[in-house]
Amino acid sequence: MGTSPRRVFLSVLTSTFIAFAANFFGVTSNLLSTLPESFAEKTGLDQFYPRGDYKRVTVRGDVGQGKCSFVIPKDWVADTSLALAQAQRRAKVLDYSMKPDQMGVLPDAAYGPPGKTDRQGLSNRETNVSVIINGVKDFTLKGTLGSDPKAAAEILLSNKFGPRRPTTLISSFEEIRGENNIPIYQFEYTVDRGDRAPPLHAISVIAGSVAGDAFVTLTVVSLDRAWTGQADDSLRQIAKSFKLV
Fold this sequence. Notes:
The chain is of the alpha+beta class. The protein has helices at 5-22, 27-34, 37-43, 80-93, 141-145, 149-156, 229-241; strands at 54-60, 67-73, 77-78, 109-112, 128-135, 167-177, 182-191, 200-208, 214-223, 243-244.
């Protein structure tokens, strides 16, 4: 007895769905790589399956419209120590003897290489990307930080606001990103840690929500000497992909 074409079609369709859902032998990831990035992002599939060498993550803060997305290398993982620190902070909120300024600032999310080093040789001790979402009132990028990205970077990287170590600004620029055409400022800089440790190299991207009730900062950082070759491309792609959603 012959097999009907309909049965063959359903079998192929079912097996395709199973392979797609399970990323069987990388089928889903390979398929996503052939599709436009905008399509993969809109469907949300690139948050579950890598698209090429990257996967997309979305971070939402506790306030306003501070929601952003960006890509990270597909083998990077969430920082478990951050989750523990966030849990400890929530517990401290119940301790009314604790003042807000005693708790410090914690990122809303952080990701980095698994293990001691990833396949590109990046160390998880020195390499990560973090996002901080701040609730504010009437924030605008140019109205609050000024219309000159370089001047804004110099203020934010000064000892008053930035690292307590000497910083050197490499570049700064403004760019429009995302479907809502939201402006961002991007700064690239190095941090001199003196004799105690090798210098760091970082890129920070800042954007304000459309409603003006939040501003979001993404920072990707690694050792200065790590910003070469494929590792350099990966670190820059993280910053380049950042946008509010």
